[in-house]
Write a structure and sequence with these properties.
567 residues, 20 helices
């Protein structure tokens, strides 16, 4: 019974996600099966199927799945559209907004499907090239791709438009897939950035792939019923592989074949890929154009602070810029790269028309290292803030955004549990700064913060903010509003955050959090309520949190996990 309750909780927690993924799998299955049957039993493909056999059906079925996923893979990266939908609280439900937060996972799923069906499609076309050669149809020469019987199949792959474009698309997909690993993105983001932008080349090749006229379709099925007896009286002899279904008119027709009234006529199979990808491509190009216009405005760097652990605090200003806590922006520095930009969560949102905001960057790759050298060339390691009048010495930064994130949802919960690992605390910092400005207008009545760091110095990034917010809550007679738990996971016995941080030191523990105990305490204090769990931590932590959120508890408390993308 306990396992059943856990399964029901697991199913209901992300019902919209599971329903969407099942719909996606069903759409793929429908595309594969319907196209397989069409080319296997369709009368207009009789002579083509007679020559190519099962390879024709498999290649066209996988092509349909490729077209479907090549159109869907663009939708999850429409950041502006998704942010607009996410911000329309009156239009979209909570489950729908949580589904939008999983757009990156759906993008990866579509990419994986493209790789799988590409392998199937390539293998089927290799078989087709072989059959075009050894099963040359001398009776109907126009249907052949080969020029004569036993022509080298490699020539068909290397000298035709479908063969050349197909090979190039496989190369592009290989580069995109291999450079998308987390290790390459962290070590050399340039490699990931430029290879991922080869999608432009891929779509050009995709649209021209079927323009070579490799496949032929019969146009006069009514005048020449496939399989009919020629006037000479000799029936066509079908060539099939063992186990391949026979064409529809041969396997389902009770009447004997009639005499042909005309010779079969064929034309080139018209390309179909453009019908699948044209609309998503137009939407994507339109959004990219709008982002280029919006992201072309310069943001002035007003101050920079060098923090421990390879983190820099950058304060920026762009008049008219507005954002909500939990959102992120893309930063571009032309002095480093003309096209490359990177996402960073806002740690302070604008509160007036001056458009002052803040981000915290951790130096993990080549781009952030270059930006650090440009920003802190005149800053010491002690962390002093550069004065405002020196802003002209800073490099130009372009800001694209803001874009929505899962942490935006926190203000729609009465109880919030924020769990962060290291620099993953940044989306929650913006929330705390907003609540410190005025916490009373929001329905959020209680907030828990669990923050894990490997080094004791990392807690100093936002120690002053945590202490100031705690003091404000005591002055407002709400000391129970914020519960802070800090965990030092990198060792150390007698270390403290700071001599003047008595409150934070009292909440500091060594080792990793005991997650079952934390969830038990939160559930006990919030019986029969819904708690929004927000996680920006490594994958191992998020997996544990998902299991605990789905597990039933005796207090009737319901936990809903909202996961930020980490790293």
């Amino acid at each position: 019974m306990k396992m059943l309750r856990r399964f029901v909780r697991w199913l209901s927690s992300d019902s919209a996600t599971y329903a969407f993924m099942l719909s996606w799998l069903g759409a793929n299955a429908w595309a594969v099966w319907s196209m397989f049957r069409l080319y296997c039993y369709g009368e207009q493909y009789y002579y083509l199927h007679r020559m190519l056999g099962l390879g024709l059906c498999v290649s066209r079925a996988s092509a349909a799945a490729l077209n479907l996923n090549c159109s869907l893979i663009l939708l999850p990266i429409l950041r502006g559209v998704l942010s607009t939908l996410r911000g329309a609280v009156r239009v979209t439900s909570k489950s729908t907004r949580r589904l939008l937060d999983r757009s990156k996972a759906f993008h990866i799923a579509c990419g994986s499907a493209i790789m799988i069906f590409t392998g199937i499609h390539c293998a089927a076309h290799m078989v087709n090239a072989w059959n075009f050669s050894i099963r040359y149809d001398e009776e109907h020469p126009t249907i052949n791709l080969a020029r004569y019987r036993y022509e080298d199949p490699r020539k068909l792959l290397l000298t035709t438009v479908p063969g050349i474009t197909g090979i190039l698309m496989v190369v592009v997909l290989f580069l995109i897939a291999t450079s998308s690993s987390r290790h390459i993105r962290l070590v050399s983001y340039n490699v990931f950035w430029y290879t991922h932008n080869l999608y432009i080349v891929f779509y050009v090749l995709l649209l021209s792939h079927a323009s070579g006229g490799a496949l032929k379709i019969q146009t006069n099925v009514k005048d020449h019923i496939p399989g009919c007896i020629p006037p000479s009286g000799h029936a066509n002899v079908s060539i099939h592989w063992a186990g391949v279904p026979r064409p529809y008119h041969e396997s389902h027709r009770a009447d004997p074949p009639s005499v042909c009234r005309a010779e079969p006529r064929f034309r080139t199979q018209l390309p179909e890929s453009w019908m699948w990808v044209l609309l998503p491509l137009c939407i994507y190009c339109g959004e990219r154009l709008m982002r280029c216009v919006r992201g072309g405005k310069t943001a002035n760097v007003t101050s920079v602070r060098n923090l421990p652990g390879g983190v820099i605090e950058v304060a920026l200003q762009r008049p008219g810029f507005s954002a909500r806590p939990g959102q992120y922006v893309f930063l571009q520095c032309p002095e480093i790269s003309t096209f490359e930009s990177h996402p960073f969560t806002l740690t302070q949102c604008p509160v007036d028309e001056k458009g002052c905001f803040m981000v915290h960057l951790r130096v993990l790759g080549d781009w952030t290292a270059s930006l650090q050298n440009l920003l802190i060339s005149g800053v010491g390691s002690s962390g002093e803030v550069l004065p405002f009048f020196q802003q002209n010495n800073f490099p130009r930064l372009y800001v694209d955004g803001p874009f929505g994130g899962p942490t935006e949802e926190i203000f729609n919960y009465e109880i919030g549990l924020c769990i962060a690992g290291g620099i993953g605390v940044t989306p929650f910092v913006a929330v705390l700064r907003t609540l410190m400005y005025d916490w009373k207008p929001f329905c959020l009545s209680r907030l828990y913060l669990v923050w894990m760091c490997r080094d004791i110095s990392h807690f100093t990034w936002f120690a002053d903010l945590l202490a100031s917010f705690n003091d404000k809550l005591w002055r407002d007679n709400r000391p129970d509003y914020l519960t802070i738990r800090l965990f030092l996971t990198g060792g150390g016995k007698s270390e403290m955050i700071g001599a003047n941080q008595t409150m934070l030191n009292a909440r500091l523990k060594l080792g990793r959090p005991d997650w079952p105990t934390i969830f038990h305490d939160v559930a006990m204090c919030n019986r029969r309520k819904t708690v929004g769990v927000f996680c920006c931590a490594p994958k191992g932590v998020s997996r544990t949190l998902r299991r605990l959120c789905n597990a039933p508890n005796k207090f009737g408390t319901h936990f809903e996990l909202n996961k930020e993308s980490f790293g």
